[in-house]
Amino acid sequence: MPQSILIIEDDETLRNALATRLEAEGFLVMEAADTDLAMRLFRDRAPDMALLDLGICGDKGMELLRDMKMERPSIPVIIVSAHTHVSYAIEAFKSGAWDYVTKPIASMDVFMNVLRNCLGQSLLQRQVRSTQDYLLRLVQKLPVIIFIINSSLKFEFLNQTTEQILGYTPQEILASPRSFLRRIVPEDRRRFLRALKKCLGPKSAELHLGFRFLHKKGYPVSLSVQFIETSTAQSGTPTQVEGMITDMTHSSYMDSLLRQNEKLNMLRIMTEEVAHEIRNPLVSLGGFARQLRSRYPEATETRVILEECSRLERLLQRITAYLEPISLTLGCCHLPPTVNFIMQLLASRLERKSITCRLDVSASLAPVLADQEFLNRIFIYLIGHGADIVEESGLIRVTASESESLVHVTVSMAPVCAPSISHERLIMPFEDGEMNLAMCLRLVERIGGHLGMEQSGSQTRMTVSMPKCVAAPGAEKERLGEAR
After folding, report:
1. For position 477, what pLDDT does the model report?
2. How much of the chain, in percent, has pLDDT values that exceed 90?
3. Which of 375, 382, 347 is nearest to 461 (CA)?
4. Do 59 and 10 touch, CB atoms closer than 8 A?
5. What are phi and psi of 253, to 5 degrees?
6. How far apart are CA 253 and CA 221, in angstroms?
7. Residues 224-247: tens digit of each pLDDT
8. For 203-206, which contacts have Cβ atoms below 8 Å and span 24 or more sequence positions?
9. Taking Cα atoms as reference points, which of 411, 360, 364, 365 lies closest to residue 388?
10. How far is it, in rounded angstroms, from Cα 145 to Cα 214?
11. Which tens digit of pLDDT belongs to each residue from 335-376?
């Protein structure tokens, strides 16, 4: 398709001469003798180039030039004017003109070369801009946070992924960059700042660092940052640092859960083997030693045998204790950020079945007395079990209520594709693998709670009742102040 050129010239003789020559050179020509028609053609037909006479319609060419560049800034406009004073050329270039040619045109061949060079460079610029726009869209949609931080520790760029990973929009962080640093978990904040300042120092180097960040919804996320040195000032010190932040929450937490479950399974097998191979003969041996001691109370050998039996019994008890690898530390735990955190962990699993997960829990819900790790696992088991049994495009809804001393959280699942689950199956250990309901029940009971289940048609409801946490006066206010 031939390239198009719009001629804006009120001198009919010159306009026809230019049109004839341009058509002979293979261009598609459009003509306008006034500013209204010129602007209409420029807007509607979008030519590849415009030739503009500054003196059109009584020296309205400069005003038309500004309007054209505002409408379509990427289209080059070459001025063809009888005004030879340098001030006109300067003003035209400031208004966005590509080139300035005076009339009469001295050499039409040279003028044609100017047009071709202009069109070639304009095409190249459009391709560069198109590539830049494509790369920017690509960066904005990457599943990692791309950032630029200057030497004043202020963000200069953030892509849109910040909202997906951190809960904050780029605009919120750019408006208050220090708030980003304050949301880093205090134990990791100093390491993050030390690594960042090292990258901005004279002996800068690329660095990798893991840290935790408090999500806008209140739960911590595990992140990995890679700092990359970019531009350097004349002093040799970098002026900014680029990098990317990757969300490691799901992989690290689920890997931890998988390792813990594998450990539990391995220890369960070990305990069964030890019980089978040692305990029965150990009991027999201990009983025989007690009979010998009753007959020969002064015999040293029977005392040694009984001591060894007791020692082996204690060893068995220690192995059995490993089936409870998580120590219990009770404290005030808040349910909304906990459930938000678990929904984020299981988001991809729910998305694969197009399951909608709705959280209807008030932010003012009373905290519960629990171990935070136990609480995380309880909801992993419950919501993960829901992801297993709810049909495609189903719904998981989490609601909460309070009684005098308890907080009740109900996970409703509908429609379910699994048969009704009996209470007997619920308490059977190692029944359903990773999302083990028996383990969930065990954890709930360890924190002094109760787990109930109800089946009604195609809907399953599981309710966890947990004791309220009565915090010391002012403690809750202090906790919220630290979070801010």
Report:
1. 44
2. 39
3. 382
4. no
5. -70, -45
6. 10
7. 999 886 656 566 678 888 899 998
8. 204/229, 204/237, 204/238, 204/241, 205/229
9. 411
10. 15
11. 999 999 998 888 888 988 999 999 999 989 999 999 998 899
435 DSSP 8-state letter: G
- SS3 for 15-43 is HHHHHHHHHHCCCEEEEECCHHHHHHHHH
Are the C-beta atoms of residues 423 and 388 closer than 8 Å to each other?
Answer: no
**How far is 217 from 339, CA to CA, in rounded Å?**
10
- The tokens describing 106, both together, are 């001295």
- Please give the C-alpha separations between residue 109 and each of 18, 22, 106, 116, 437, in angstroms, as whole numbers: 12, 11, 9, 11, 85
Q: Which residue intervals of 142-248 are DSSP H helices?
A: 161-166, 170-175, 177-183, 186-199
Alpha-carbon separation of residue 316 from 305, 430, 443 (angstroms): 17, 21, 23
Nearest to residue 35, comparing CAs of 68, 5, 3? 68
Query: Residues 293, 295, 297, 299: what is their CA dihedral angle, to the nearest 10 degrees?
Result: -70
This prediction's pTM: 0.54
Position 141 scores a pLDDT of 83
Nearest to 361 by CA among 395, 394, 330, 402: 402
What are the pLDDT digits (tens) for 153-204?
Answer: 888 899 999 998 999 999 999 888 788 888 999 989 999 988 888 888 777 6
Q: H-helix or E-strand containing 300?
A: helix 300-321
* Run of H or E including 227: strand 220-229
d(Cα 209, Cα 21) in Å, to the nearest integer? 65
Contact 204/231 with Cβ under 8 angstroms? no
The DSSP letter of residue 203 is: T
